[in-house]
Amino acid sequence: MLPREDLLKGIEERDTAVRVIDQAEQAIKTWEVVCTDFVSPPELADIQRMFQRLADVVTLPWGGYPQAERQRVAIARSELPVETSQVAIAAIDISGNFLFDQATHRDFLGALLGTGIVREKVGDILVLGERGAQAIVVPELVEFLEMSVTQVRSVPVKTRRMDLSELKIREPKKKEMATVEASMRLDAVASAGFGMSRSKMADLISTGDVRVNWKDITQTSHQLKSGDLVAIRGKGRLEIGEVMITKKDRYRVQLTRFV
Question: Which end of the chain offers a freer environment for a tag, N or C, measured as fewer CB atoms within 10 Å?
Fold first, then answer.
């Protein structure tokens, strides 16, 4: 048995973590590779934090492409080799003419969940503008979704299984920059990195739209450090690089923004 209470210390998404510990115990007992459902970035961070303390368990997350946000996690005994091909995922194409009724990520997700399936069975959704979207799902639901997803908003759609190699992946644009700040406060550094006023950034932080290392942070005074990742819903991510102290005791921070 795994040291459950020790593993759960400091974990926020406890329900997900408990299920994953159950699956890890199954993987140890059966000597098989066991896959979780799709997890969100905060849940994935918790899972990786839990299992990095254990020498006898390995985990491998995969969501269908390298930048995927929602991923399934393969769990196995450390003696077993684990590859992304063992993480069972499939892709579907949802095509229709959205020229006059544009659909958003929320619309496509709503159409999928409207069939009665739960969020954990759906990975990333790639919206393709006027021609529809592609979605990553658990393989066992593909046939059901092909029959069930026939409309998104007012638009009739055709849903079909597709190969993962057909995914229309948009490589994130990367911008390197540097800023000099009086402190490493979240509102100060992030406002510089995202190119917005400090008051606007403070509003986003207080309303829960900002995450640091995939955890919701609502304090503008939260202290950042090198290696931290700041994400704002709908605006991309900011990676905190090298931090140097200037002669005037200010912080010179290297930043990389992904949009």
Answer: N
Residues facing 93 on adjacent strands:
134, 160
Determine the Cα–Cα distance for residues 45 and 177; give it in Å rounded to an integer.
26
Query: H/E/C letters for each residue in 109-152?
Result: HHHHHCCCCCHHHEEEEEECHHHEEEEEECHHHHHHHHHHCCEE
Residues in CB range of 196: below 8 A, 6 or more apart: none
Enclosing domain of residue 123? 90-166
**End-to-end Cα distance, the chain:** 43
The CATH number given to whatever domain includes residue 192 is 3.10.290.10
The single-letter DSSP state of residue 98 is -
Residue that finishes a domain, picked among 54, 86, 118: 86
Asked if 94 contacts 111 with a C-beta cutoff of 8 angstroms, the reply is yes
* pLDDT tens, residue by residue, 36-93: 999 998 889 888 888 887 888 999 999 999 889 899 999 999 898 899 999 999 999 9
At residue 82, φ and ψ (nearest 5 deg) are -125, 130
What is the number of residues in the chain? Answer: 259
Contact assessment for residue 254 and residue 241, using Cβ atoms and an 8 Å cutoff: yes
**Looking at the DSSP assignment, which residues form a beta bridge with residue 133?**
94, 127
